[in-house]
Design brief:
Residues 221-302 form the Multidrug resistance protein MdtA-like beta-barrel domain. Belongs to the membrane fusion protein (MFP) (TC 8.A.1) family. Residues 306-365 form the Multidrug resistance protein MdtA-like C-terminal permuted SH3 domain. The protein is of the alpha+beta class and 395 residues long. Helix content is 28%, strand content 34%. Helix 2 packs antiparallel against helix 3.
Length: 395
């Protein structure tokens, strides 16, 4: 019985030793596999080079353009009101008509004003006759005083009476002019050239000071107003100092762009929106711009001469900065730090490149500095020109 137990214990010891040896062999094999995983390829060799596409940077002039949503606003608009209470005698214009400055638009009932003018003229004529009579008396009194037939006090009395009569003539003339001004209110004329809006009165309508007759809006020239971000204010002011700044307005995707000149930059920045209001003046003889219309405004604030342009897809930004990968002469990837100066569409003008590098545009996601690369297609290295477009959007 004792001999049998010894045999069982010896058998268990052999089994445990065999298990320990087997597990240790597997751990060594796994460690060897992990150690060779980063350096061995599928067939046990070195890792193959990354497949990439490259492009040559372009040298070209890049316009820096501000783009904003704008609204068309008239330079001036007038809401016509009568200056007296009366009735409309005749309407001389039609809705939508273009009128010239000084053109007769409405005639009011002016019978009372004309009667007052006649009354003022009659009063002035009466005062003038009285003054003429006193003047004759004064001349005779001067002759009588010279012959010592009357006292000096009588002459002075006639002189004061004559002065009073002359003052009455002046007052009568002023009253006549006042009545003529009141009568002029019965003929309402266009204060400026422009287009007539809706007409709200008709012959026989009673009008008062608060009655709106119609509006006149100046269409040529005309303004567009829009806001630009305050970050663009410096470039905008610098461009204005260098000369007239051209502004293009586009009324729709299929419309023809019209050009005007920057005419106004507001004197304050809106602190809530972080933008500043500007205006541009346009010739509008063909009435292509209409008050209240929404358009797209584009302002070229500067042109970057002979800038280095690359696709934006080639630029990498991370915690280490902004850079691109370029393919070196030894077919390896090299990091080149760049600064994005101006972005337009799919391209960007950058600094930090000479312009003769081969910038990697595709396949850069798994690259490391010094990693070997291989061109996917030799034709991808041919230069491709970039067409500048607008970039900065302003609300």
């Amino acid at each position: 019985m004792k001999k049998k137990s010894i045999v069982i214990v010896a058998g268990l010891a052999v089994l445990i030793g065999a298990g320990v040896w087997y597990v240790g062999r597997d751990d060594k094999a796994a460690g060897a596999g992990q150690a060779g995983k980063g350096t061995a390829g599928p067939n046990g060799g070195a890792q193959p080079p990354a497949i990439v596409n490259v492009i040559a940077p372009q040298r070209q002039d890049v316009p820096v353009v501000l783009q904003a949503n704008a609204s068309v606003t008239p330079v001036s608009t007038v809401d016509l009101h009568p200056q007296t209470t009366s009735t409309i005698r005749k309407v001389h214009i039609k809705e939508g008509q273009f009128v010239k400055a000084g053109e007769l638009m409405f005639s009011l009932d002016d019978r009372s004003e004309r009667a007052n003018i006649d009354k003022a003229r009659a009063q002035m004529a009466r005062d003038a006759a009285s003054a003429a009579d006193l003047e004759r008396q004064y001349k005779r009194s001067e002759e009588l005083f010279a012959q010592k037939f009357i006292a000096r006090s009588a002459v002075d009395t006639l002189k004061s009476q004559l002065d009073a009569a002359r003052a009455l003539v002046g007052a009568g003339q002023a009253a006549l002019q006042a009545e003529q001004v009141n009568a002029s209110y019965s003929a309402i004329r266009a204060p400026m050239a422009g287009r007539v809006g809706a007409i709200n009165v008709f012959p026989g309508s009673l009008v008062q000071l608060a009655t709106s007759l119609t509006t006149i809006t100046q269409l040529d020239p005309i303004n567009i107003a829009f806001n630009v971000p305050e970050s663009a204010l410096g470039d905008l002011l610098a461009a204005q100092k260098n000369g007239a700044v051209t502004v293009d307005a586009l009324a729709g995707p299929n419309a023809r762009a019209v050009s005007g000149k920057l005419s106004f930059i507001d004197n304050t920045v809106d602190p809530l929106a972080g933008s500043i209001k500007v205006k541009a003046l346009f010739d509008n003889k063909d009435a292509s711009l209409w008050p209240g219309q929404y358009v797209t405004a584009r302002v070229t604030v500067q042109t970057m001469k002979n800038a280095v342009v690359i696709p934006q897809a080639a630029i990498i930004s991370n915690t280490r900065g902004t850079f691109v990968y370029v393919m070196g002469a030894d077919q390896s990837a090299q990091q080149m730090p760049v600064v994005r100066l101006h972005a337009f569409g799919l391209h960007a003008a950058v600094s930090g490149l000479k312009g003769d590098e081969k910038v990697i545009t595709e396949g850069k996601q798994n690259l490391r500095p010094g990693a070997k690369v291989k061109l996917a297609d030799a034709a991808a290295a041919k230069p491709g020109a970039a067409t500048p477009t607008t970039t900065v959007a302003a609300q």
